[in-house]
Records
---
Amino acid sequence: MMHLFLNCLAASAGSGLTYVRNVVPQLSARPALRATVALSPQLRKELGNPSKISFIETEVPAGAAKRFCWEQVFLPGMIRRSGADVLISAGNFALRRSPVPQILLSGNSLYTSDDFYRDLRRRRAYRMWLDTRVRGFFARRSVGWADCTVAPSKAFADTLRSWTGGKVVSIHHGFDPEIFFNDHTPLPPSIQETIDAGDNALRLIFVSHYNYYRNFETLLRAIPIIRERLGGRDVQLFLTCKLLADENSGAHRTEAAAAMVKHLGIPNQVIELGAVPYHLLQHLIRACNIYVTPAYAETFAHPLVEAMACGLPVVASDLPAHREICGNAAVYFPRFSHQLLADKVAQVGQSSALRTRLAECGLKRSREFSWRDHVDQVIALAESLRPIAKYPRAA
Protein backbone atom coordinates (compact mmCIF):
# COMPACT_ATOMS: atom_id res chain seq x y z
CA MET A 1 0.00 0.00 0.00
CA MET A 2 1.46 3.33 -1.05
CA HIS A 3 1.54 6.13 1.49
CA LEU A 4 1.38 9.76 0.28
CA PHE A 5 2.20 12.84 2.33
CA LEU A 6 0.32 15.96 1.19
CA ASN A 7 1.62 19.31 2.33
CA CYS A 8 -1.49 21.51 2.14
CA LEU A 9 -0.40 24.13 4.66
CA ALA A 10 -0.60 26.83 1.98
CA ALA A 11 -4.27 26.10 1.20
CA SER A 12 -6.16 29.07 2.60
CA ALA A 13 -8.30 30.48 -0.22
CA GLY A 14 -9.45 30.08 -3.81
CA SER A 15 -8.07 27.21 -5.85
CA GLY A 16 -6.02 25.85 -2.93
CA LEU A 17 -9.14 25.17 -0.88
CA THR A 18 -10.98 23.80 -3.91
CA TYR A 19 -8.12 21.38 -4.50
CA VAL A 20 -8.00 20.00 -0.96
CA ARG A 21 -11.78 19.71 -0.62
CA ASN A 22 -11.99 17.60 -3.75
CA VAL A 23 -8.77 15.58 -3.65
CA VAL A 24 -8.93 14.29 -0.08
CA PRO A 25 -12.23 12.35 -0.62
CA GLN A 26 -10.78 10.85 -3.80
CA LEU A 27 -7.66 9.65 -1.98
CA SER A 28 -9.81 8.15 0.75
CA ALA A 29 -11.72 6.11 -1.85
CA ARG A 30 -8.56 4.39 -3.19
CA PRO A 31 -8.29 0.86 -1.71
CA ALA A 32 -4.49 0.50 -2.05
CA LEU A 33 -3.57 3.94 -0.74
CA ARG A 34 -3.31 5.87 2.46
CA ALA A 35 -2.36 9.47 3.00
CA THR A 36 -1.14 11.91 5.61
CA VAL A 37 -2.30 15.48 5.09
CA ALA A 38 -0.68 18.48 6.77
CA LEU A 39 -3.09 21.39 6.92
CA SER A 40 -4.47 24.20 9.07
CA PRO A 41 -6.95 23.42 11.88
CA GLN A 42 -9.53 25.64 10.14
CA LEU A 43 -9.44 23.54 6.97
CA ARG A 44 -9.41 20.28 8.92
CA LYS A 45 -12.90 21.05 10.26
CA GLU A 46 -14.34 20.94 6.73
CA LEU A 47 -13.09 17.48 5.80
CA GLY A 48 -14.85 15.15 8.25
CA ASN A 49 -13.23 11.78 8.98
CA PRO A 50 -12.34 10.11 5.68
CA SER A 51 -10.96 6.59 5.95
CA LYS A 52 -7.22 5.94 5.53
CA ILE A 53 -6.45 9.66 5.84
CA SER A 54 -4.36 10.91 8.74
CA PHE A 55 -4.27 14.63 9.45
CA ILE A 56 -1.52 16.73 10.94
CA GLU A 57 -3.06 19.98 12.11
CA THR A 58 -0.59 22.76 12.63
CA GLU A 59 -0.48 26.53 12.61
CA VAL A 60 2.34 27.96 10.55
CA PRO A 61 3.68 31.52 10.56
CA ALA A 62 1.67 33.99 8.49
CA GLY A 63 3.16 35.06 5.18
CA ALA A 64 4.66 33.00 2.37
CA ALA A 65 8.30 33.70 3.31
CA LYS A 66 7.89 32.68 6.95
CA ARG A 67 5.84 29.62 5.99
CA PHE A 68 8.47 28.60 3.44
CA CYS A 69 11.24 28.79 6.06
CA TRP A 70 9.13 26.93 8.62
CA GLU A 71 8.44 24.12 6.15
CA GLN A 72 12.11 23.74 5.21
CA VAL A 73 12.99 23.23 8.90
CA PHE A 74 10.10 21.23 10.34
CA LEU A 75 8.35 19.41 7.48
CA PRO A 76 11.10 16.82 6.73
CA GLY A 77 10.78 15.45 10.27
CA MET A 78 7.00 15.16 9.93
CA ILE A 79 7.42 13.26 6.67
CA ARG A 80 9.96 10.82 8.16
CA ARG A 81 7.76 10.15 11.20
CA SER A 82 4.75 9.50 8.98
CA GLY A 83 6.56 6.78 7.03
CA ALA A 84 5.28 8.20 3.71
CA ASP A 85 6.67 7.00 0.38
CA VAL A 86 6.14 10.16 -1.69
CA LEU A 87 5.63 13.84 -0.84
CA ILE A 88 3.16 15.99 -2.74
CA SER A 89 3.95 19.66 -2.14
CA ALA A 90 1.03 21.95 -2.88
CA GLY A 91 1.35 25.70 -2.87
CA ASN A 92 4.10 26.31 -5.49
CA PHE A 93 7.10 25.73 -3.21
CA ALA A 94 9.04 22.50 -2.73
CA LEU A 95 11.26 21.15 0.02
CA ARG A 96 14.91 21.71 -0.87
CA ARG A 97 15.91 18.38 0.66
CA SER A 98 12.89 16.13 0.75
CA PRO A 99 13.48 12.82 2.56
CA VAL A 100 11.28 11.05 -0.04
CA PRO A 101 10.56 11.57 -3.76
CA GLN A 102 8.64 14.81 -4.26
CA ILE A 103 5.92 15.96 -6.62
CA LEU A 104 5.45 19.73 -6.73
CA LEU A 105 2.05 21.17 -7.59
CA SER A 106 2.67 24.54 -9.22
CA GLY A 107 -0.25 26.80 -10.07
CA ASN A 108 0.74 30.44 -9.70
CA SER A 109 1.12 32.22 -13.03
CA LEU A 110 2.05 35.56 -11.48
CA TYR A 111 5.71 34.66 -11.10
CA THR A 112 5.99 34.41 -14.88
CA SER A 113 3.55 37.20 -15.84
CA ASP A 114 5.05 40.32 -17.41
CA ASP A 115 1.56 41.84 -17.30
CA PHE A 116 1.45 41.46 -13.53
CA TYR A 117 4.83 43.08 -12.98
CA ARG A 118 3.86 45.98 -15.26
CA ASP A 119 0.57 46.36 -13.40
CA LEU A 120 2.34 46.52 -10.04
CA ARG A 121 4.72 49.20 -11.28
CA ARG A 122 1.81 51.19 -12.69
CA ARG A 123 0.07 51.02 -9.31
CA ARG A 124 3.35 51.84 -7.55
CA ALA A 125 2.96 48.63 -5.57
CA TYR A 126 6.72 48.26 -5.31
CA ARG A 127 6.69 46.17 -2.15
CA MET A 128 4.39 43.61 -3.78
CA TRP A 129 6.57 43.72 -6.92
CA LEU A 130 9.65 42.86 -4.87
CA ASP A 131 7.81 40.22 -2.83
CA THR A 132 6.58 38.53 -6.01
CA ARG A 133 10.07 38.58 -7.51
CA VAL A 134 11.48 36.93 -4.38
CA ARG A 135 8.73 34.31 -4.32
CA GLY A 136 9.27 33.74 -8.01
CA PHE A 137 12.94 33.02 -7.37
CA PHE A 138 12.09 30.25 -4.90
CA ALA A 139 9.20 28.96 -7.04
CA ARG A 140 11.63 28.60 -9.93
CA ARG A 141 14.20 26.86 -7.76
CA SER A 142 11.46 24.60 -6.40
CA VAL A 143 10.89 23.08 -9.83
CA GLY A 144 14.52 21.97 -9.73
CA TRP A 145 14.23 20.62 -6.18
CA ALA A 146 11.21 18.45 -7.01
CA ASP A 147 11.46 15.13 -8.82
CA CYS A 148 8.57 16.22 -11.01
CA THR A 149 6.32 19.28 -11.19
CA VAL A 150 2.63 19.13 -12.07
CA ALA A 151 0.85 22.10 -13.69
CA PRO A 152 -2.97 22.27 -13.93
CA SER A 153 -3.00 23.05 -17.66
CA LYS A 154 -0.84 22.37 -20.69
CA ALA A 155 -0.53 26.12 -21.28
CA PHE A 156 1.03 26.69 -17.86
CA ALA A 157 3.17 23.55 -18.10
CA ASP A 158 4.68 24.94 -21.30
CA THR A 159 5.38 28.24 -19.53
CA LEU A 160 7.04 26.50 -16.58
CA ARG A 161 9.25 24.36 -18.82
CA SER A 162 10.39 27.43 -20.72
CA TRP A 163 10.98 29.36 -17.48
CA THR A 164 12.81 26.65 -15.53
CA GLY A 165 14.02 23.97 -17.94
CA GLY A 166 12.70 21.44 -15.40
CA LYS A 167 10.57 18.31 -15.68
CA VAL A 168 6.95 19.51 -15.84
CA VAL A 169 3.82 17.57 -16.75
CA SER A 170 0.28 18.84 -17.13
CA ILE A 171 -2.62 17.21 -15.30
CA HIS A 172 -5.91 19.07 -15.46
CA HIS A 173 -7.65 19.84 -12.23
CA GLY A 174 -11.04 18.23 -11.97
CA PHE A 175 -14.67 18.88 -11.25
CA ASP A 176 -17.00 16.79 -9.12
CA PRO A 177 -20.68 17.55 -9.84
CA GLU A 178 -21.79 15.37 -6.92
CA ILE A 179 -19.95 17.66 -4.50
CA PHE A 180 -20.69 20.94 -6.27
CA PHE A 181 -24.43 20.30 -6.75
CA ASN A 182 -25.01 18.34 -3.55
CA ASP A 183 -26.28 21.16 -1.31
CA HIS A 184 -29.84 22.36 -1.85
CA THR A 185 -29.76 25.11 0.75
CA PRO A 186 -31.33 28.23 -0.82
CA LEU A 187 -29.48 31.48 -1.19
CA PRO A 188 -29.72 33.87 1.76
CA PRO A 189 -32.81 36.12 1.47
CA SER A 190 -30.65 39.24 1.04
CA ILE A 191 -29.02 37.79 -2.09
CA GLN A 192 -32.21 36.28 -3.47
CA GLU A 193 -34.10 39.56 -3.04
CA THR A 194 -31.38 41.41 -4.96
CA ILE A 195 -31.62 38.91 -7.79
CA ASP A 196 -35.42 39.10 -7.87
CA ALA A 197 -35.37 42.90 -7.88
CA GLY A 198 -33.39 42.88 -11.13
CA ASP A 199 -35.56 40.32 -12.85
CA ASN A 200 -35.30 42.00 -16.27
CA ALA A 201 -31.59 42.81 -16.00
CA LEU A 202 -28.80 41.00 -17.80
CA ARG A 203 -27.03 39.39 -14.86
CA LEU A 204 -23.28 38.88 -15.11
CA ILE A 205 -21.20 37.04 -12.54
CA PHE A 206 -17.49 37.00 -11.76
CA VAL A 207 -16.36 34.68 -8.94
CA SER A 208 -13.11 35.93 -7.42
CA HIS A 209 -11.48 37.62 -4.49
CA TYR A 210 -10.29 41.10 -5.40
CA ASN A 211 -6.75 41.00 -6.68
CA TYR A 212 -4.95 42.87 -9.43
CA TYR A 213 -4.43 40.07 -11.93
CA ARG A 214 -8.17 39.38 -12.07
CA ASN A 215 -8.35 42.71 -13.90
CA PHE A 216 -11.54 44.01 -12.27
CA GLU A 217 -11.07 47.49 -13.66
CA THR A 218 -11.40 46.36 -17.28
CA LEU A 219 -14.69 44.67 -16.41
CA LEU A 220 -15.98 47.71 -14.53
CA ARG A 221 -15.20 50.01 -17.47
CA ALA A 222 -17.25 47.75 -19.71
CA ILE A 223 -20.50 47.95 -17.72
CA PRO A 224 -21.77 51.34 -19.03
CA ILE A 225 -20.87 50.31 -22.58
CA ILE A 226 -22.76 47.03 -22.23
CA ARG A 227 -25.85 48.97 -21.16
CA GLU A 228 -25.46 51.21 -24.18
CA ARG A 229 -25.04 48.22 -26.52
CA LEU A 230 -28.20 46.68 -25.07
CA GLY A 231 -30.26 49.79 -25.72
CA GLY A 232 -30.42 50.85 -22.09
CA ARG A 233 -31.37 47.46 -20.64
CA ASP A 234 -30.24 47.20 -17.06
CA VAL A 235 -27.06 45.23 -16.34
CA GLN A 236 -26.06 43.75 -13.00
CA LEU A 237 -22.59 42.50 -12.21
CA PHE A 238 -22.42 40.14 -9.22
CA LEU A 239 -19.05 39.98 -7.46
CA THR A 240 -18.11 37.51 -4.73
CA CYS A 241 -16.00 40.13 -2.99
CA LYS A 242 -16.36 43.66 -1.68
CA LEU A 243 -14.37 46.62 -2.90
CA LEU A 244 -13.66 47.79 0.63
CA ALA A 245 -10.21 47.84 2.18
CA ASP A 246 -11.30 46.23 5.45
CA GLU A 247 -13.28 43.53 3.61
CA ASN A 248 -10.41 42.40 1.40
CA SER A 249 -7.63 40.11 2.56
CA GLY A 250 -4.08 40.50 1.36
CA ALA A 251 -2.17 43.49 0.06
CA HIS A 252 -4.32 44.25 -2.99
CA ARG A 253 -5.83 47.70 -2.51
CA THR A 254 -9.43 48.17 -3.62
CA GLU A 255 -9.66 51.97 -3.43
CA ALA A 256 -9.07 52.58 -7.15
CA ALA A 257 -11.69 50.03 -8.18
CA ALA A 258 -14.22 51.42 -5.68
CA ALA A 259 -13.57 54.97 -6.95
CA MET A 260 -14.07 53.75 -10.52
CA VAL A 261 -17.51 52.37 -9.65
CA LYS A 262 -18.55 55.79 -8.39
CA HIS A 263 -16.92 57.68 -11.26
CA LEU A 264 -18.68 55.53 -13.85
CA GLY A 265 -22.01 55.93 -12.09
CA ILE A 266 -22.59 52.20 -11.72
CA PRO A 267 -22.96 51.57 -7.96
CA ASN A 268 -26.44 50.12 -8.55
CA GLN A 269 -25.14 47.81 -11.27
CA VAL A 270 -22.21 46.36 -9.29
CA ILE A 271 -23.51 44.02 -6.59
CA GLU A 272 -20.73 43.36 -4.08
CA LEU A 273 -21.85 40.21 -2.27
CA GLY A 274 -18.66 39.42 -0.42
CA ALA A 275 -17.46 35.85 -0.03
CA VAL A 276 -20.14 33.30 -0.90
CA PRO A 277 -19.83 29.82 0.66
CA TYR A 278 -18.73 27.19 -1.85
CA HIS A 279 -21.86 25.09 -1.37
CA LEU A 280 -24.04 28.06 -2.42
CA LEU A 281 -22.12 29.02 -5.55
CA GLN A 282 -24.19 26.76 -7.80
CA HIS A 283 -27.37 28.65 -6.89
CA LEU A 284 -25.78 32.05 -7.46
CA ILE A 285 -24.25 31.08 -10.81
CA ARG A 286 -27.48 29.56 -12.07
CA ALA A 287 -29.34 32.74 -11.16
CA CYS A 288 -27.16 34.69 -13.60
CA ASN A 289 -27.07 34.84 -17.39
CA ILE A 290 -23.38 35.08 -18.36
CA TYR A 291 -20.11 34.26 -16.63
CA VAL A 292 -17.42 36.87 -17.32
CA THR A 293 -13.70 36.78 -16.51
CA PRO A 294 -11.28 39.54 -17.55
CA ALA A 295 -8.23 37.99 -15.81
CA TYR A 296 -4.90 38.68 -17.50
CA ALA A 297 -3.07 35.77 -15.83
CA GLU A 298 -4.42 32.28 -15.18
CA THR A 299 -3.37 28.65 -14.87
CA PHE A 300 -6.72 26.82 -14.76
CA ALA A 301 -9.71 28.81 -13.35
CA HIS A 302 -12.07 26.46 -11.50
CA PRO A 303 -15.03 28.90 -11.66
CA LEU A 304 -15.07 28.55 -15.45
CA VAL A 305 -15.70 24.80 -15.16
CA GLU A 306 -18.32 25.42 -12.48
CA ALA A 307 -20.05 28.01 -14.66
CA MET A 308 -20.06 25.69 -17.67
CA ALA A 309 -21.49 22.89 -15.51
CA CYS A 310 -24.28 25.28 -14.47
CA GLY A 311 -25.13 25.91 -18.12
CA LEU A 312 -23.85 29.48 -18.33
CA PRO A 313 -22.25 30.89 -21.47
CA VAL A 314 -18.77 32.29 -20.82
CA VAL A 315 -17.11 35.50 -21.96
CA ALA A 316 -13.40 35.25 -21.17
CA SER A 317 -10.17 37.11 -21.75
CA ASP A 318 -8.14 35.57 -24.54
CA LEU A 319 -5.58 33.60 -22.55
CA PRO A 320 -4.13 30.21 -23.55
CA ALA A 321 -5.38 28.68 -20.27
CA HIS A 322 -8.92 30.00 -20.84
CA ARG A 323 -9.01 28.59 -24.37
CA GLU A 324 -7.67 25.27 -23.14
CA ILE A 325 -10.31 24.97 -20.41
CA CYS A 326 -13.36 26.35 -22.25
CA GLY A 327 -12.65 25.61 -25.89
CA ASN A 328 -15.69 26.53 -27.99
CA ALA A 329 -17.87 27.04 -24.89
CA ALA A 330 -16.75 30.68 -24.60
CA VAL A 331 -16.24 33.81 -26.64
CA TYR A 332 -12.98 35.67 -26.11
CA PHE A 333 -11.74 39.27 -26.04
CA PRO A 334 -8.29 40.91 -25.72
CA ARG A 335 -7.56 40.99 -21.99
CA PHE A 336 -7.26 44.77 -21.59
CA SER A 337 -9.99 45.90 -24.00
CA HIS A 338 -13.11 46.93 -22.11
CA GLN A 339 -14.70 47.96 -25.43
CA LEU A 340 -14.37 44.50 -26.94
CA LEU A 341 -15.37 42.88 -23.65
CA ALA A 342 -18.58 44.92 -23.80
CA ASP A 343 -19.12 43.94 -27.44
CA LYS A 344 -18.82 40.23 -26.65
CA VAL A 345 -21.14 40.41 -23.63
CA ALA A 346 -23.72 42.35 -25.65
CA GLN A 347 -23.40 39.84 -28.50
CA VAL A 348 -24.10 36.93 -26.14
CA GLY A 349 -26.83 38.83 -24.29
CA GLN A 350 -28.71 39.65 -27.49
CA SER A 351 -28.53 36.21 -29.15
CA SER A 352 -30.51 33.37 -27.60
CA ALA A 353 -29.08 31.02 -30.24
CA LEU A 354 -25.51 31.90 -29.24
CA ARG A 355 -26.31 31.54 -25.54
CA THR A 356 -27.83 28.13 -26.17
CA ARG A 357 -24.88 26.94 -28.25
CA LEU A 358 -22.33 28.13 -25.68
CA ALA A 359 -24.30 26.60 -22.81
CA GLU A 360 -24.59 23.24 -24.55
CA CYS A 361 -20.88 23.23 -25.39
CA GLY A 362 -20.07 24.21 -21.81
CA LEU A 363 -22.09 21.40 -20.27
CA LYS A 364 -20.35 18.91 -22.53
CA ARG A 365 -16.93 20.41 -21.84
CA SER A 366 -17.41 20.44 -18.05
CA ARG A 367 -17.90 16.65 -18.09
CA GLU A 368 -14.36 16.23 -19.39
CA PHE A 369 -12.87 17.39 -16.07
CA SER A 370 -12.75 14.82 -13.30
CA TRP A 371 -11.09 14.83 -9.91
CA ARG A 372 -11.03 11.04 -10.11
CA ASP A 373 -8.98 11.20 -13.31
CA HIS A 374 -6.73 13.87 -11.79
CA VAL A 375 -6.01 11.78 -8.70
CA ASP A 376 -5.48 8.63 -10.82
CA GLN A 377 -2.79 10.44 -12.84
CA VAL A 378 -1.11 11.90 -9.74
CA ILE A 379 -1.06 8.46 -8.09
CA ALA A 380 0.43 6.92 -11.26
CA LEU A 381 3.12 9.61 -11.21
CA ALA A 382 3.82 8.90 -7.53
CA GLU A 383 4.08 5.17 -8.28
CA SER A 384 6.66 5.90 -10.97
CA LEU A 385 8.76 7.75 -8.38
CA ARG A 386 8.61 5.08 -5.67
CA PRO A 387 11.74 3.24 -6.90
CA ILE A 388 13.70 6.41 -6.07
CA ALA A 389 12.71 5.89 -2.43
CA LYS A 390 14.77 2.69 -2.28
CA TYR A 391 17.94 4.73 -2.30
CA PRO A 392 18.77 6.83 0.78
CA ARG A 393 18.70 10.57 0.36
CA ALA A 394 21.10 13.02 1.90
CA ALA A 395 19.81 14.64 5.06
Note: The radius of gyration is 21 Å.
---
Amino acid sequence: MFVELGARLIQADAIAHQLMQPGQAVYEEVVRHFGRGILNSDKSIDRARLAEAAFKTSEENPKSRIQELNRIVHPAVVRKQDEWMEELGHRDPQAIAIVEAALILEAGAAQHFDRLIVVTCRPEQRIERWAQSKKVSLDAARREVTRRMAAQLPDENKTKAANYVIDNSGSLEATRKQVNEIYAALKHAVDTACSG
Protein backbone atom coordinates (compact mmCIF):
# COMPACT_ATOMS: atom_id res chain seq x y z
CA MET A 1 0.00 0.00 0.00
CA PHE A 2 2.86 2.40 0.78
CA VAL A 3 4.49 1.57 -2.57
CA GLU A 4 1.21 2.33 -4.37
CA LEU A 5 1.40 5.81 -2.80
CA GLY A 6 4.99 6.35 -4.00
CA ALA A 7 7.21 4.95 -1.24
CA ARG A 8 10.30 2.92 -2.13
CA LEU A 9 10.53 -0.49 -0.46
CA ILE A 10 13.22 -2.98 0.38
CA GLN A 11 12.56 -6.21 2.27
CA ALA A 12 15.02 -7.45 4.88
CA ASP A 13 14.01 -11.04 4.18
CA ALA A 14 14.90 -10.65 0.49
CA ILE A 15 18.28 -9.16 1.44
CA ALA A 16 18.95 -12.07 3.81
CA HIS A 17 17.99 -14.52 1.06
CA GLN A 18 20.50 -12.88 -1.34
CA LEU A 19 23.23 -12.90 1.30
CA MET A 20 22.70 -16.63 1.86
CA GLN A 21 23.45 -17.55 -1.74
CA PRO A 22 26.54 -19.71 -2.41
CA GLY A 23 29.68 -17.60 -2.63
CA GLN A 24 28.45 -14.92 -0.22
CA ALA A 25 30.29 -14.40 3.08
CA VAL A 26 27.07 -14.80 5.09
CA TYR A 27 26.39 -18.11 3.32
CA GLU A 28 29.85 -19.41 4.25
CA GLU A 29 29.43 -18.36 7.89
CA VAL A 30 25.94 -19.89 8.19
CA VAL A 31 27.13 -23.20 6.72
CA ARG A 32 30.17 -23.17 9.02
CA HIS A 33 27.96 -22.70 12.09
CA PHE A 34 25.01 -24.92 11.14
CA GLY A 35 26.65 -27.60 9.02
CA ARG A 36 26.23 -28.98 5.55
CA GLY A 37 23.00 -30.71 6.60
CA ILE A 38 21.14 -27.46 5.88
CA LEU A 39 22.12 -27.56 2.19
CA ASN A 40 20.16 -28.72 -0.81
CA SER A 41 21.84 -30.91 -3.42
CA ASP A 42 22.73 -27.78 -5.44
CA LYS A 43 24.55 -26.37 -2.36
CA SER A 44 21.90 -23.68 -1.77
CA ILE A 45 20.60 -23.30 1.77
CA ASP A 46 17.33 -25.09 2.48
CA ARG A 47 15.62 -22.36 4.49
CA ALA A 48 13.23 -24.80 6.18
CA ARG A 49 16.14 -26.96 7.36
CA LEU A 50 18.05 -23.89 8.52
CA ALA A 51 15.00 -22.69 10.47
CA GLU A 52 14.65 -26.14 12.00
CA ALA A 53 18.32 -26.15 13.02
CA ALA A 54 18.12 -22.61 14.42
CA PHE A 55 14.88 -23.05 16.38
CA LYS A 56 15.34 -26.67 17.45
CA THR A 57 15.82 -27.41 21.14
CA SER A 58 16.67 -30.67 22.89
CA GLU A 59 17.66 -31.93 26.33
CA GLU A 60 21.33 -31.47 25.42
CA ASN A 61 20.67 -28.00 23.92
CA PRO A 62 17.68 -26.46 25.71
CA LYS A 63 18.22 -23.06 24.04
CA SER A 64 17.53 -22.50 20.38
CA ARG A 65 20.33 -21.25 18.15
CA ILE A 66 18.28 -18.44 16.63
CA GLN A 67 20.43 -15.79 18.32
CA GLU A 68 23.52 -17.39 16.79
CA LEU A 69 21.92 -17.19 13.33
CA ASN A 70 20.81 -13.61 13.93
CA ARG A 71 24.33 -12.55 14.97
CA ILE A 72 25.59 -13.79 11.59
CA VAL A 73 22.81 -12.44 9.36
CA HIS A 74 21.52 -9.23 10.98
CA PRO A 75 24.66 -7.06 10.74
CA ALA A 76 25.07 -7.85 7.03
CA VAL A 77 21.38 -7.17 6.33
CA VAL A 78 21.51 -3.86 8.22
CA ARG A 79 24.60 -2.81 6.21
CA LYS A 80 22.79 -3.54 2.93
CA GLN A 81 19.71 -1.62 4.11
CA ASP A 82 21.90 1.35 5.04
CA GLU A 83 23.63 1.27 1.66
CA TRP A 84 20.28 1.15 -0.14
CA MET A 85 18.84 4.04 1.89
CA GLU A 86 21.97 6.15 1.35
CA GLU A 87 21.99 5.51 -2.39
CA LEU A 88 18.28 6.29 -2.64
CA GLY A 89 18.74 9.48 -0.61
CA HIS A 90 21.41 10.70 -3.02
CA ARG A 91 19.24 9.96 -6.07
CA ASP A 92 16.00 11.31 -4.58
CA PRO A 93 16.33 13.31 -1.35
CA GLN A 94 12.54 13.49 -1.02
CA ALA A 95 12.00 9.73 -1.34
CA ILE A 96 10.19 7.87 1.39
CA ALA A 97 12.25 4.72 1.91
CA ILE A 98 10.62 1.83 3.74
CA VAL A 99 12.49 -1.20 5.04
CA GLU A 100 10.15 -4.10 5.72
CA ALA A 101 11.62 -6.18 8.53
CA ALA A 102 10.17 -8.21 11.39
CA LEU A 103 13.23 -7.88 13.64
CA ILE A 104 14.34 -4.23 13.53
CA LEU A 105 14.24 -3.83 17.30
CA GLU A 106 15.63 -7.30 17.99
CA ALA A 107 18.54 -6.60 15.61
CA GLY A 108 19.32 -3.37 17.47
CA ALA A 109 18.78 -1.44 14.23
CA ALA A 110 16.07 1.04 15.27
CA GLN A 111 18.55 3.94 15.32
CA HIS A 112 19.11 3.45 11.57
CA PHE A 113 15.62 4.79 10.83
CA ASP A 114 13.90 8.14 11.15
CA ARG A 115 10.54 6.56 11.96
CA LEU A 116 9.27 3.11 12.95
CA ILE A 117 5.94 1.75 11.77
CA VAL A 118 4.66 -1.37 13.51
CA VAL A 119 1.90 -3.44 11.91
CA THR A 120 -0.15 -5.59 14.27
CA CYS A 121 -3.11 -7.90 14.17
CA ARG A 122 -4.77 -10.30 16.57
CA PRO A 123 -2.68 -13.42 17.37
CA GLU A 124 -5.27 -15.79 15.88
CA GLN A 125 -5.24 -13.77 12.65
CA ARG A 126 -1.50 -14.27 12.35
CA ILE A 127 -2.05 -18.01 12.48
CA GLU A 128 -4.92 -17.95 9.99
CA ARG A 129 -3.02 -15.71 7.59
CA TRP A 130 0.13 -17.87 7.81
CA ALA A 131 -1.93 -21.00 7.13
CA GLN A 132 -3.57 -19.35 4.14
CA SER A 133 -0.38 -17.89 2.65
CA LYS A 134 1.69 -21.04 3.14
CA LYS A 135 -1.19 -23.43 2.40
CA VAL A 136 -0.71 -25.40 5.61
CA SER A 137 -3.09 -26.56 8.34
CA LEU A 138 -4.02 -24.29 11.23
CA ASP A 139 -2.11 -26.59 13.61
CA ALA A 140 1.06 -26.39 11.49
CA ALA A 141 0.64 -22.63 11.19
CA ARG A 142 0.12 -22.28 14.95
CA ARG A 143 3.36 -24.17 15.65
CA GLU A 144 5.36 -22.09 13.17
CA VAL A 145 3.89 -18.73 14.22
CA THR A 146 4.41 -19.58 17.90
CA ARG A 147 8.01 -20.57 17.20
CA ARG A 148 8.70 -17.39 15.24
CA MET A 149 6.97 -15.10 17.74
CA ALA A 150 9.08 -16.57 20.55
CA ALA A 151 12.14 -15.09 18.82
CA GLN A 152 10.54 -11.64 18.64
CA LEU A 153 9.75 -8.96 21.17
CA PRO A 154 6.11 -8.87 22.28
CA ASP A 155 3.84 -6.53 20.31
CA GLU A 156 3.48 -4.27 23.36
CA ASN A 157 7.24 -3.56 23.31
CA LYS A 158 7.19 -2.91 19.57
CA THR A 159 4.20 -0.58 19.68
CA LYS A 160 5.79 1.42 22.51
CA ALA A 161 8.90 1.94 20.35
CA ALA A 162 6.90 2.84 17.23
CA ASN A 163 6.18 6.26 15.83
CA TYR A 164 3.15 4.83 14.05
CA VAL A 165 1.07 1.69 14.59
CA ILE A 166 -1.11 0.11 11.93
CA ASP A 167 -3.80 -2.20 13.29
CA ASN A 168 -4.22 -4.72 10.50
CA SER A 169 -7.01 -6.64 12.29
CA GLY A 170 -9.89 -5.00 10.45
CA SER A 171 -10.91 -4.60 6.86
CA LEU A 172 -8.58 -3.87 3.99
CA GLU A 173 -10.20 -0.43 3.72
CA ALA A 174 -9.46 0.30 7.40
CA THR A 175 -5.82 -0.68 6.89
CA ARG A 176 -5.58 1.42 3.72
CA LYS A 177 -6.98 4.45 5.60
CA GLN A 178 -4.25 4.11 8.26
CA VAL A 179 -1.56 3.73 5.57
CA ASN A 180 -2.81 6.83 3.75
CA GLU A 181 -2.72 8.89 6.96
CA ILE A 182 0.79 7.73 7.86
CA TYR A 183 2.07 8.27 4.33
CA ALA A 184 0.69 11.83 4.38
CA ALA A 185 2.49 12.46 7.70
CA LEU A 186 5.75 11.01 6.33
CA LYS A 187 5.45 13.07 3.15
CA HIS A 188 4.84 16.21 5.18
CA ALA A 189 7.91 15.49 7.34
CA VAL A 190 10.10 14.96 4.24
CA ASP A 191 8.77 18.07 2.51
CA THR A 192 9.33 20.15 5.64
CA ALA A 193 12.87 18.81 6.11
CA CYS A 194 13.79 19.43 2.47
CA SER A 195 12.38 22.97 2.40
CA GLY A 196 14.03 23.97 5.69
Note: The first strand starts at residue 8 and ends at 11.
